[in-house]
Write a structure and sequence with these properties.
globular, 11 helices, 10 strands, ATPase BadF/BadG/BcrA/BcrD type domain-containing protein, ATPase_NBD, ATPase_BadF
Length: 297
């Protein structure tokens, strides 16, 4: 590339409830960005591609760039549900960048949150993962999707809360203000059952704020759910090798809400994230520039 064609870098952070895009120059200066709809490539690859493409176009417009800049862009996508090169081939065919690297959304979140330093990350939004970074090596627990994984996630909280509502309706458990308010949103238990037949992780996750709020108000079922989620997170961190005093970042829309439920020793060195998944994605995109020897002035 000539000097006038030096590449931009672009990052996509895609999850079960939405996606975000950032565009920067090679020095990391943000030029534009956009948000879009859900982009979990395991749940619906075609829909994810459409949503990511729309968000990228919006980000290009925000950066005062057009589609002619696309061949000059080195990009990294960190997409929930990304697992193999079969998905990668479809994505690379769809998105014609100068270079494109692909991971799921866990490595980008860990890299961005820790700023390349050692430590641990709990990332919880619609889904869940726990990650560790040590001397540049990353290891993960969970993050394999709502149906068989993602305990403690926003979607998990939502589904578990409705399970409790059913048990309260069956008189196995006693209603609390939380379960009564959840049931009231459906008017009756049959409507709730019908909802569950087609509900997506995103649908369940919309109840998470109600559960978190109820728990903070000492609702018995709200606190039980948060404690159950926290117990899973403690076991995940232990599996990853966490030791008392090591750096731990809580990130995502739900992650920080678990702070008061983790307990010692897991809450002894909670630190603010140094960045986010988009920062991690831009760092990975910049590596593509360096690998192709495209120096920036």
């Amino acid at each position: 590339m000539s000097d006038s064609q030096k590449p931009y870098i672009l990052a996509v952070d895609g999850g079960g409830s939405g996606c975000r895009v950032a565009i920067a120059d090679c020095d990391g200066n943000r030029l534009g960005g956009a948000i879009g709809d859900a982009a979990n490539v395991a749940s619906n690859l075609d829909s994810a591609c459409v949503n990511v493409a729309a968000a990228i176009n919006a980000a290009l417009k925000d950066a005062h760039l057009d589609h002619h800049a696309t061949p000059n862009i080195c990009a990294h996508f960190g997409l929930a549900g990304y697992m193999d090169e079969k998905q990668g081939q479809i994505l690379r065919k769809k998105f014609k960048f100068h270079k494109l690297s692909l991971t799921d959304d866990r490595p980008t979140t860990v890299l961005g949150s820790l700023g390349g330093q050692d430590g641990y990350v709990i990332g919880i939004g619609t889904g869940t993962f726990c990650g560790a970074s040590n001397a540049g090596q990353m290891h993960f627990v969970s993050g394999r999707g709502f149906y068989i994984s993602d305990q403690a996630s926003g979607a998990w909280l939502g589904r578990r809360s409705l399970e409790i509502v059913v048990q309260c309706d069956d008189k196995i458990l006693v209603h609390s203000p939380l379960t009564q308010s959840l049931l009231a949103q459906f008017n009756n238990i049959n409507a709730m059952v019908k909802f569950s037949v087609t509900a997506t992780p995103r649908d369940y996750a919309r109840f998470a704020p109600d559960i978190i709020r109820a728990a903070s108000n000492d609702d018995q079922h709200g606190r039980a759910l948060m404690n159950e989620g926290a117990a899973y997170l403690r076991s995940a961190l232990t599996t990853l090798g966490y030791q008392s005093g090591e750096r731990l970042v809580l990130t995502g829309g739900v992650g920080p809400s678990y702070l008061e439920y983790l307990g010692k020793p897991f809450n002894t060195n909670i630190t603010k994230p140094l960045g986010d998944a988009l920062d991690g994605g831009l760092a990975m995109a910049h590596k593509l520039v360096l690998q192709s020897n495209e120096a920036c002035a």
